[in-house]
Amino acid sequence: xxxxxxxxxxxxxxxxxxxxxxxxxxxxxxxxxxxxxxxxxxxxxxxxxxxxxxxxxxxxxxxxxxxxxxxxxxxxxxxxxxxxxxxxxxxxxxxxxxxxxxxxxxxxxxxxxxxxxxxxxxxxxxxxxxxxxxxxxxxxxxxxxxxxxxxxxxxxxxxxxxxxxxxxxxxxxxxxxxxxxxxxxxxxxxxxxxxxxxxxxxxxxxxxxxxxxxxxxxxxxxxxxxxxxxxxxxxxxxxxxxxxxxxxxxxxxxxxxxxxxxxxxxxxxxxxxxxxxxxxxxxxxxxxxxxxx
Length: 293
Hints:
This protein has 293 residues and is mainly α.
């Protein structure tokens, strides 16, 4: 039974989650508004190996975006159950954005690449381990266990590794591939615009995840062993996804994309997230917003 409304009794708190909420409103975009005409023409002009690389990358993005859309609701319910209204308000935009990302990549496959379905063969064992097992398990656990440890492990999986390492590395690979296409006189303007919007959305998602983890670490630094254990489980799988992408092209990568560059980029992303988490471990709760603001 509800006994009152916090917003009525105390108002809204103008903290970091509300800043993310307002930013999401200001930066709203619509995947349906993008015109893929030039992108379709450019894709059709590519050689089959370059087309295959873009199909593979997009299938990884699309599957991942569908996964994070499906798996976010337990976190929303956990946050709402704690009465964290401002965080829940932000998470409503978070869920909408994940759905828009699914829409965008599905549109690319159908309208640019002429491929609708039948792309699961691009997903290797490490990819399936993360998106079929580790991510839904960590997020689904929040339905029955909303402890700080469970929330931290979920955010490490979803925000730090899936979004902060895998997605960011994938965007880097996509941008590198498009740079090579431009050298051939080809361009994918609507695709680049959409990916730029998605990357901006994901930066807010990662910021919230780090905020959530930092909040819990500030309240209980003893959670750090759980952080280390989860990341030790996840990092080899994430690097394995990158390696699977390059292993598929035994005769050399289309568009001269470098495996060494992207493995190094993935490790750099991981190291950056770890620096934030290590600071959260050593600083009190009062410094949390400065960590991710």
